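Long-time lurker, first post. I've been practising inverse folding by hand and with some scripts of my own, and I keep getting stuck on stretches where the structure tokens seem ambiguous. Below is the full token string for one chain I'm working on. Before anyone asks, I'm not after the true native sequence, just a reasonable design that respects the backbone. If someone could post their per-position residues I'd love to compare against what I wrote down in my notebook.
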């Protein structure tokens, strides 16, 4: 008799859990952005959240939990309840965190991969007073001045930091890295002439390029951008840095153990969201390409991530950077 009651209770609990997953989502969903409000990752997350609202049928709330190169917000999601109501939008920095920090507060296996969202190039920009009008002149200027050149970035683990590492390695230079707490103060000092150059996401640099507040020397993608502000700007590859290819990508994640039916629902909603014409138009205006290949699947996203993590582990080791 006891066995029968126990079995019945177990079946009821299982059915309730299955029903809950079938009804997902029944309330608003929170997307954690581990960076500051108004930054490129925040803008992307808000665009995606708006596009996800209709296919998920619930409001999407953005929570900015910044600090330590994105690791604080990521750890928050890794520890969250795995019910699909707390998600994470993170960029390329997720693939470098374990190479830059001894203990970022989570393991990659603490997360479920839901799909790659987009990718975008960075731009190599400089203060207007630089005596270089194209990349060839800038390259010579860097060779002449070397460590006296100040190369800004938005902080350890930021996209601009990673692009700077690749630039430094490719040029075999010894420029002085100047880390800031975010893109805004770095860009302010660049425009004010306190900093020489910066490798920054096109999303952030386009307004300054259009207003001629900075000089632009190249884009980090292998193809030129079609948007007006960057259409005439050469790629760094064609400007002389052969094979230079850097893109900032963003992905969507959930806590490990999120039920597969919920993962599948979120992935299906993401696929619909990334076909939203308004989202595509807004992203394109910022030189961002929405993903539309096998990396949009959880499995493809994870495979892409593993390759990126291995690639950046090598870059960081070769740069002589020790985990903090």
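-- Answer (accepted) --
I ran through it position by position. Result:
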């Amino acid at each position: 008799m006891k066995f029968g009651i126990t079995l019945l209770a177990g079946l009821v609990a299982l059915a309730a859990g299955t029903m809950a997953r079938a009804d997902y989502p029944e309330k608003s969903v929170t997307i954690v952005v581990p960076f500051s409000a108004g930054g490129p990752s925040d803008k992307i997350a808000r665009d995606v959240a708006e596009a996800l609202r209709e296919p998920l049928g619930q409001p999407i709330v953005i929570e900015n939990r910044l600090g330590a190169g994105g690791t604080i917000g990521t750890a928050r999601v890794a520890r969250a309840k795995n019910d699909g109501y707390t998600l994470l939008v993170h960029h390329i920095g997720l693939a470098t965190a374990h190479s830059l920090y001894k203990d970022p507060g989570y393991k990659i296996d603490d997360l479920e991969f839901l799909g790659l969202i987009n990718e975008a190039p960075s731009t190599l920009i400089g203060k207007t007073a630089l005596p270089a009008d194209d990349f060839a002149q800038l390259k010579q200027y860097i060779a002449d001045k070397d460590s006296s050149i100040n190369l800004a970035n938005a902080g350890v683990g930021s996209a601009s930091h990673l692009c700077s590492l690749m630039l430094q390695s490719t040029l075999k230079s010894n420029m002085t890295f100047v880390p800031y707490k975010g893109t805004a103060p770095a860009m302010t000092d660049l425009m004010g002439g306190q900093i020489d150059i910066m490798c920054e996401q096109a999303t952030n640099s386009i307004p300054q390029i259009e207003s001629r507040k900075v000089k632009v020397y190249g884009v980090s993608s292998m193809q030129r951008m079609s948007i007006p502000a960057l259409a005439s700007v050469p790629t760094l590859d064609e400007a002389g840095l052969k094979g230079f290819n850097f893109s900032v990508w963003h992905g969507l994640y959930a806590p490990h153990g999120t039920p597969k039916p919920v993962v599948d629902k979120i992935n299906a909603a993401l696929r619909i969201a990334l076909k939203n014409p308004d989202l595509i138009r807004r992203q394109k205006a910022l030189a961002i390409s929405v993903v539309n290949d096998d990396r949009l699947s959880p499995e493809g996203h994870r495979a892409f991530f593993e390759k990126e993590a291995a690639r950046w582990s090598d870059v960081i080791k070769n740069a002589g950077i020790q985990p903090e």
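A couple of notes from the structure itself: Confidence is low (pLDDT under 50) at residues 11-16. The chain has two domains: 27-119+248-318, 121-239. Happy to go over any region you disagree with.
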